[in-house]
Design brief:
One of its GO terms (molecular function) is trehalose-phosphatase activity. With 505 residues, this protein is an alpha/beta fold. The chain is built from 17 helices and 18 strands. It binds GDP-alpha-D-glucose (GDG).
């Protein structure tokens, strides 16, 4: 037992992501307090880091953060925040010069990778300075992560008779950090520190024809191959990655066993579809107060305001729907929550203006003295309201042009009642599209068809709604975010089995 306890204390998961799992607030007396960030990743992964005596490495969100400043954690011991219990030494904050950070984050991440990886290359900007900033910031992350690996090894050595044979796990997240792995690996090799490394990409991985447009594509692929396990949401992204490794780098790949061989190492590639904290959404939906009048049919959209989410096409489809099916005038409304996002990037400002105009145009066209077709919220709603929106909507209209997974579709499903559920309409271009097969599928580019499918959803019989939704609910309950974390970690554990261990001949 005591050996178990010691081993657990030496356990080690190091998570590396662009942002730490909390936001910092500067109080009037100059001290910094923290509040857990919203979102599935933090909800699922932070408790594992806490339980595991692990470490989280990330940027603080503050331009003027001084690494020596003390951060005061959540004060109440019974705080329900996922980061409550995360000791200050379990969060390694890093600071980056604001100009460098801007070129890395707004420049390379948001203006290059985001459009390119969503297969919209015309929107992508290729800039040498931004690429240089990306390399530099990834190196800063790598050095901080090395500090974390060192501290884990030191802790293990300080435990008498610590018999944990498994090297610590470094879990790197997302397109912000595709280059960090090799510098971490090299640093560990130099210092004789064992480590297992995994990478998870939260956005799509595009096809060879798209990714080859990026002038420094080989570096990106080699960066990801610095890990032992590379995870994507769905099989298609894995196959694209294998194909690109083979065609850009000439690596041997195996599409059955799903691995890439690179520099004498074998890198596992896995589809690990992310889930949501299903029980949390379901239980909140049971108690949230009603938000809409029950005699009105509600069609709901919830997205960050981003061009990949298909908001303009969606609005045009709704305009078509009200024109083609005037029976819904005065009887149905479309509610769109559009959360401000990347407001420093010019393209996002223009998109907001286009949407503002379109909403005004459609409302002007169809409104009556007591009803308007579109209710548009540019801002976020709190979690209780969001859950009530999901639960009370008759139709969830989720039509991204391209999306890694799309958690909104899953949250909508978790909040539906079993006795009188709504209908999910989903684009096949979201990762969730291929997995949530009982949803009504629509191609967001087919305006007329989207209009027809919305009408069909609003008219769907109770029996069909129940049949579809109850299957969807079952799957999301089983494949929730905890299951996702477990499958990633068990993938990392399978590296300990000699037959799949990366060989170094
Ligand atoms: C990336 C990938 C992938 C939205 N509005 C409000 C609010 N939200 C929350 C939702 C949901 C999250 O934001 C959005 O998640 P998505 O998955 O839809 O989209 P991205 O932000 O683009 O996420 C995506 C994901 O990573 C995970 O791997 O699925 O494909 O692009 O959780 O609930 N939350 C609150 N108020 C709002 O108004 N409280």
């Amino acid at each position: 037992k005591s050996e178990d306890k010691q081993n657990r204390a030496a356990a080690s998961l190091i998570v590396v992501s662009n942002r730490l799992p909390f936001v910092l607030k500067r109080e009037e007396d100059g001290t910094l307090t923290r509040k857990a960030s919203a979102g599935g990743l933090v909800t699922a992964v932070a408790p594992v880091v806490v339980d595991n005596h692990g470490i989280w490495v990330g940027w603080t969100g503050l331009d003027d953060f001084d690494e020596e400043t003390e951060v005061i954690p959540e004060s109440s011991p019974d705080d329900k925040a996922p980061t409550a219990g995360l000791r200050p030494d379990q969060a390694i904050p890093l600071s980056v010069n604001p100009k460098l950070f801007d070129e890395y984050y707004n420049g390379c991440c948001n203006e290059t990778y985001w459009p390119l990886f969503h297969s919209m290359p015309d929107r992508a900007v290729f800039n040498r300075d931004h690429w240089k900033a990306y390399q530099d910031v990834n190196d800063i992350f790598a050095q901080k992560t090395l500090e974390a690996v060192r501290s884990v090894h030191e802790k293990r050595m300080a435990i008498p008779d610590c018999s944990r044979p498994d090297p610590p796990i470094v879990w790197i997240h997302d397109y912000h950090l595709m280059l960090a792995a090799n510098a971490i690996r090299d640093g560990c090799n130099d210092e004789g520190l064992q480590v297992r490394m995994g990478f998870f990409l939260h956005i799509p991985f595009p096809s060879f024809d798209i990714i080859r447009i990026f002038p420094w594509v080989d570096e990106i692929l080699m960066g990801m191959l610095g890990c032992d396990l590379v995870g994507f949401h769905i099989g298609d992204y894995c196959l694209n990655f294998l194909d690109c490794c083979q065609r850009c780098l000439g690596c041997r790949t195996d599409k059955n066993k799903m691995f890439v061989e690179h520099c004498g190492r074998r890198v596992m590639v896995r589809a690990l579809p992310i889930g949501i904290p299903y029980h949390k959404f379901e239980s909140l939906s049971r108690i949230a107060p009603r938000v809409f009048p029950s005699d009105m049919k509600i069609i709901l959209g919830v997205d960050r305001l981003d061009y990949t989410k298909g908001l303009v096409a969606r609005l045009k489809s709704l305009e078509r729907m009200f024109k083609k099916y005037p029976k819904w005038i005065g009887k149905a409304i479309f509610i769109q929550v559009a959360v401000p996002s990347r407001v420093d990037v010019a393209e996002y400002k223009e998109l907001k203006e286009t949407i503002d105009r379109l909403v005004g145009h459609i409302n002007g066209e169809f409104s009556t003295p007591s009803w308007s077709p579109i209710r548009y919220i540019f801002g976020s709603v709190n979690q209780d309201q969001l859950v009530a929106f999901y639960r009370d909507a008759n139709v969830g209209l989720i039509t991204p042009l391209r999306d890694g997974m799309n958690l909104v579709a899953k949250e909508f499903v978790a909040c539906q009642s079993e006795s009188d559920p709504g209908v999910l309409i989903l684009s096949p271009f979201a990762g969730a599209g291929g997995l949530m097969q009982e949803a009504l599928q629509v191609n967001p580019y087919e305006t007329d068809n989207v209009a027809d499918v919305v009408d069909r959803a609003l008219e769907m019989s109770l029996d069909e709604r129940k049949l579809r939704m109850n299957q969807l609910k079952k799957r999301e309950k089983r494949m929730d975010v905890d299951a996702w974390v477990r499958s990633f970690l068990s993938g990392m554990d399978s590296l300990l089995v000699p037959s799949v261990r990366p060989n170094h001949d």
